[in-house]
Design goal:
- 2 copies of one chain form a homodimer.
- By secondary structure, chain A is of the alpha+beta class.
- Chain A has 2 domains: 16-319, BirA Bifunctional Protein, domain 2; 333-425, Anticodon-binding domain (Rossmann fold), CATH 3.40.50.800.
- Chain A has helices at residues 16-35, 58-63, 83-92, 136-152, 167-177, 185-192, 200-211, 215-225, 234-245, 291-294, 310-319, 343-355, 370-379, 390-395, 416-425; strands at 39-40, 46-48, 66-69, 75-78, 101-110, 122-131, 160-166, 252-254, 268-274, 281-288, 303-309, 333-335, 360-362, 384-387, 397-402, 407-412.
- In chain A, the strands form 3 sheets. In chain A, strands 1-5-6-11-10-9-7-8 form an 8-stranded mixed β-sheet. Chain A has a 5-stranded mixed β-sheet with strand order 13-12-14-15-16, sandwiched between helices.
- In chain A, helix 1 (16-35) packs antiparallel against helix 4, helix 4 crosses helix 9 (234-245) and helix 5 runs antiparallel to helix 8 (215-225).
- The longest helix of chain A is centred in the first third of the chain and has 20 residues, at 16-35.
- The interface between A and B is large, with 101 and 101 residues.
């Protein structure tokens, strides 16, 4: 006998109860975006490798993509993220679109990572971006949206925080205080992106050995990264003022260690972090002012946005016990088959209910005993069962059973108005 | 300057207006499934090649899959269809599930086909299946659902038809009338699947040369395929009777030329065809009674279902001019910025509206002239604009403009009840 063919490692199946949660989460995301006027779009899942090279995160592009070749031997990639695709789509219609645009998208993404808690090789991600505004107002709006998402998910400042930085401000500070030439600054930023992944001693050795920094320079860098004061960045000052007006400042703090590993970010960068024992980045985003030109657009279209994967946020909801208990939406009524000679009565009644817009299952196993049919309906969480036996058939009536309340009531099959009301409100115990 | 990086051939981007249609179509599908009590599920997009080999359509598996290798050198496939995945998921939980189950799914699929009208390399597909019933009632329900989909899409018997066959009945007929040994029957079925793709003369030569059929056998086969009478299949007779009771028989006809190219079908098979100049299969399905065992399950779980891609049905809706005109759901109100010193007033008002659940855009370009802001809102199809100038700011009021009706009205910023009513019903010309 053949072995059961397994699912691919690091991917997920979604049985109805799992999918009910995924839909709930998707609706939370899209609902928040709608509140701010963001319109939904989607894209292809396959892109040419060229779209990502030199723009996205080097680690993701070189080590974590699922790649394949098309028949012209061009290298294709299963999209690991959406921002380069968004830039391509905007560049394609840069002459037609009315800027600024506010767009959001929810879809599937792929990264060849080591599967672990909160990470998988196939995941869903919500992307939300404003393009065409170089004002700090756009950055403030995007961060406000991230905080609004927290609120809509019942996450408080106890559970999550948003760490914000100005990458350009940080670069200026490093150039000035460490007296580094421009070409040496990006490698330092790259190192900062890994600072939380190693102990201080090891990190200092890395800076000295690999980046040729002196002990003084390293001390200065540590001082810079402790900065708790916004004066180094008038840009962030305005953003923080606006976040205060928007009533979300309590979620936000300055953190100069946040640089994001994506090459396309130019200014504001931020990461949401769990404050629970999960202690990991939940999602991140930032401003990318040159990306549409980097993918070949003629026009510079500044953008700012962020992307939230489904897996880390789900881990957090589970950890703090606010993962929702959801029912899988099934039928409202289960129409039994009393006996095969009465099948026509039952199937016609089921069809009549559907024509009224009532979600209705007709039993699919003729000849099964009635008590087993009720048991099946109950297991499927269908709240009502309908029975048409010989008496009901000749009187053109139907017995409705409320399976939870264990109560029943008889109706004329034509009295759809009363039947609908009962299916909505339930039957009170006789 | 770099060239614009193109999208991959045969794939699609969905700008907001395109995506609004895709969502509409998805909701039509899922709505029909819900009416019959089918619950939504989803799966991984990557599967092992072994899941499809010898079960699915040979043409699809060997010539039309996007394949890639994982790092253990196992061959992965971007799913070309869902039924084998469904069988795998059911087999994985065969001990836990309460049968029969009614499941539906809407997701993305990939086939390396030559892109043409109504076909692409990346498409969406709705799958709907009932598993665990070997009764003809399940087949009748599935075909009724297909007809209900037509009705919900405003397609009549003028536009589309469902051609139904009993593959097992046809095999028996061929075995008996052509006096063929069992092992020679499947190749004849394979040939029938291609009958519409070549002229009769060529097809007769194919049957004679490649399948060793005599002229008499070929004549008999042609007679069999003309059968217009259900007596050869008591199974189909019961299904057709039930379809008549369900009020959908006018969409359905018998057609012994329908065999479907998927190896897993065992009995009922059907295809929906456009009757317009499109003249092609819109979708297909059938009964597969052994698939869960073929993927390694221990238990035989009979199933029946069908799958509808988005592209062919969209071509049909366009051809007969019932493709819907949809608005992309954006903000209800656009809050202008009168001047930078009044920004706080505007942003606070925008936030207040959002807290009432009203989709609200705040302008993102401080300093832009008011008439250009109105023009922007109008182009984005946002029905209302809000203005807080110096007078309004000091009086704590706001001017609401109905951009379509070209009318306006002044409100207290705190009178959210009146504002909400106006945003719902519009402003009548003063």
């Amino acid at each position: 006998m053949p072995q059961l063919i397994p699912k691919v490692k690091g991917t997920r199946d979604f049985y109805p109860e799992d999918w009910a949660y995924q839909k709930w989460l998707c609706e939370k995301f899209i609902g928040v975006g709608n509140l701010f006027g963001y319109r939904e779009y989607e894209s292809t899942i396959l892109e040419y490798m060229a779209l990502y090279l030199g723009k996205s995160s080097e680690e993701i592009v070189t080590q974590q993509t699922f790649t394949l070749s098309d028949r012209d031997d061009k290298q294709l990639v299963m999209r690991p993220e959406l921002t380069p695709t968004l830039a391509r789509m905007v560049a394609q219609k840069e002459g037609e679109l009315t800027f600024p645009i506010r767009w959001q998208s929810y879809g599937r993404f792929f990264r060849y990572e080591r599967p672990q808690r909160g990470r998988g090789r196939s995941f869903f991600q919500w992307n939300i971006d404003a393009l065409g505004s170089d004002s700090y107002l756009a950055d403030a709006e995007i961060i406000t949206i991230a905080c609004t998402l927290f609120k809509h998910l019942d996450l408080s400042t106890q559970h999550a925080t948003i760490r914000v930085n100005d990458r350009q401000g940080l670069e200026n500070l490093i150039a000035k205080e460490l007296a580094l030439p421009p070409e040496n600054i990006r490698p330092v930023l790259g190192a900062i992106d890994r600072i939380d992944k190693m102990p201080e001693e090891k990190f200092r050795i890395h800076l000295a050995d690999d980046l040729d920094l002196s002990t003084d320079q390293i001390d200065t860098l540590y001082e810079i990264l402790q900065t708790a004061d916004l004066t180094f960045s008038p840009w962030l000052q305005r953003i923080f003022e606006q976040l205060d007006k928007n009533g979300v400042i309590e979620f936000v703090k300055l953190d100069l260690k946040i640089v994001r590993g994506f090459d396309y970010y130019t200014r504001t960068v931020f990461e949401a972090w769990a404050k629970t024992s999960l202690r990991r980045a939940l999602f991140g985003g930032g401003r990318y002012d040159n990306l549409t030109r980097q993918v070949g657009g003629k026009r510079q279209v500044p953008g700012v946005g962020f992307a939230v994967g489904d897996m880390a946020i789900t881990e957090l909801l589970k950890e703090i016990d606010i993962y929702p208990q959801l029912e899988t939406p099934g039928a409202r009524v289960f129409v039994t088959i009393f006996s095969e000679d009465l099948l026509t009565q039952s199937s016609s009644f089921a069809e009549k209910l559907r024509q009224e817009g009532i979600a209705t299952e007709l039993h699919l196993i003729p000849g099964q005993r009635l008590d087993r049919q009720f048991k099946y309906a109950d297991r499927q969480n269908i709240p009502f069962a309908a029975v048409i036996g010989p008496d009901e058939a000749s009187a053109n009536t139907v017995v409705l059973k409320d399976l939870k309340a264990r109560a029943q009531q008889i109706f004329s099959q034509n009295d759809l108005c009363a039947i609908k009301t009962t299916l909505k409100n339930g039957i009170t115990q006789a």
